Amino acid sequence: MKVALFVPCYVDQFYPQVAIATLEVLEKQGVTVVYPARQTCCGQPMANSGFEHLATGCNENFVENFADCDYIVSPSGSCVLHIKDHLHVESAEEKAASIRRRTYELVEFLTDIVQVKTLTSRFPHRVGLHQSCHGQRGLKLSQMSELVAPPFSKTGQLLGLVEGLELVQLNRADECCGFGGTFCVAEEAVSVKMGKDRVADHEAQGAAFITGNDMSCLMHLEGILRRQNSPMKVVHVAEILNAW
């Protein structure tokens, strides 16, 4: 199994340890991982702002870099959903369609494709899970509370395999953190209030860490935690799965 690692811009620039953890988690599962060195932005920021037509170059570059592999895996639900829903290249639509089908978020890939049943990781802390909107409602990584259906969480399932980890129960487990890509810039006050609400929920449950599948959401929450001088920290799920 040959997997191409897709590293989002903000992970590359601000949280490279998440990309490294993703690589190591995949390799521990016996997966051969390659890194297309000429990859760049997937085009999501332009699409979020209503300028998807300006992402043509990003789309063409993505197809050029990720056409030759079994799967494409990324530690970002929002970027993966963007590729699945918006990757189109007029001159190479067949390749683009194939890439859309083969692109997976890390947890999605581990649970659905690799079908991980055991882990050797250890993380002896109380952890709150932030289930980001793109992953939950777009990739179906967890059940939405507004639906009358049995609850599930693929991320929670993997975290349950980590030795010593105690997953706390939040009052509003699937509430948006307020990041929302460019929303946090256009609607700063609303975004901050939503983030404060999410932080307060984790604090009320005594969590020492907030984890999630999207470092963008965690970056938003981390900024609030720092402003509040909170001892709580954020950590991407890949870092927990790679911990020992």
From TrEMBL:
GO cellular component, one term: cytosol
Domain Cysteine-rich residue range list: 3-84, 127-221
One function term, GO molecular function aspect: oxidoreductase activity
Pfam family, one: CCG
Protein name according to UniProt: (Fe-S)-binding protein
Species the sequence originates in: Dawidia soli
